[in-house]
Amino acid sequence: MNNQNKERIGVKFGILIGLIIILMIPMVMIKDLIYERSEMQEQVKQDIAMSSSAQQRLLGPFIYVEYERDITREKTVSIVKEQTFLLPDTLQIHSKLDTFEKYRSIYKATLYRSNNTLTGVFKTSELEFLKKHRVTSISLAFGISDIRGIGLDSVVKVADEKVKILPGTQLRKLPDGIHTPLNLSQLLKDSELSFVADLYLQGMEKLSISPLGRESRISMAANWPHPSFEGAYLPVNSDISNEGFTANWQASFFSTNMKSTFENCILRSICSDLTERTMGVSLVDPVDHYLKSHRAVNYALMVILLVMASFFLLELVREEPIHPVQYGFVGLALAIFYLLLISLSEHLGFGVAYMISTLAATGLLSWYVTGVLKSKVLGGYFFIGLTLLYSLLYGMLGAEDYALLMGSLICFIVLSLVMILTRRINWYSSSRKEVTAQEVSPASNAPS
């Protein structure tokens, strides 16, 4: 056993472990930078929403009534103020969204203009009891989460007659929206009251609808090819293509319990369930370079370990010592890859930025390896290997559902190759041996 060689290998291995730990410091700093830039983008979205319109939630229509009734107690008549509501018996909503983007500096937000056509019928016979009381207010109301987004071309018709639209819903718990006044004679003229509304809404990234009808049928179409269907109910069918998507929902009082939920909000001020009973879509940005960069940094330790291990094995096999400073330069080049990736992706997109960063990092490291090991062949092999590694990493970033499986398989395959290639190395010997099945003894190692 060569104690001196054993000690040299142990010291070098310890230095490498310490160097890898130190390299995690700039990786943490880069991860913090990604988080900071991502937060800045979210702040820009909030600023655009404050000056334009935010996510939209459409609730309605519904009929809201305030009335007074007399109560006689011990020959004393007192007036009690009451309120009631009526939800549509049938409700059909079709929403068509046209998307566009707004920029501030290098950051952007996805907005949309939507044309929402609402049709349906109220069964007004349920309000016959109002004839016995004094009605103080009747209105047909629509809840809109951000009223700033409503277009001037919006139109509401009741019983085929165009009506005036007024701001607000007149409800304390759901104040944001619009309403149109009705009168009792108009309401009870027939057993049914039809309505048609064309509401033009501008919003940001998300549109959700509450299915208030006893039977609700909702459809959406948009020129956005990356929808994320959200809410308490998923569409019964959907079609997604490169040109956009269409989706359809169906719901009833049996599946939504919407009547009781709405009553709890309006009459008892318990509105948490009502805000959750929605169906809608979020316009997902498929090229969220901050998210992908963050995920790429999560694999940085694996990349650094593999590259450092490759250098260490080359040093052992060739018996040409590599200075720790040279290992440090290699590690810094690997870290700079991620800094290039996040900075370039803000201007060029993630795919192009990843390609440029990969070529820059692999080119620099291959050139450096060629000079350190004085071998163009090893430099070429290193370029191919590192390019393959970054290509596999890119595949893992795109295959979110299989990223863990792919990462585990890559680690297993690399470890297997290292064990196979180094199975003939005598870690305590200073003699040079190839990492193949054939063993060659150089003249320099001949016994003196």
Automatic annotation (TrEMBL):
Keywords: Membrane, Transmembrane, Transmembrane helix. It comes from the Bacteria. GO terms for cellular component: plasma membrane. The chain crosses the membrane at residues 9-30, 296-314, 326-345, 351-370, 377-396, 402-422. The keyword Ion transport does not apply. InterPro entries: Uncharacterised_IM_CreD. PANTHER family: INNER MEMBRANE PROTEIN CRED. This is Inner membrane protein. The lineage of its organism: Bacteria, Pseudomonadati, Pseudomonadota, Gammaproteobacteria, Alteromonadales.
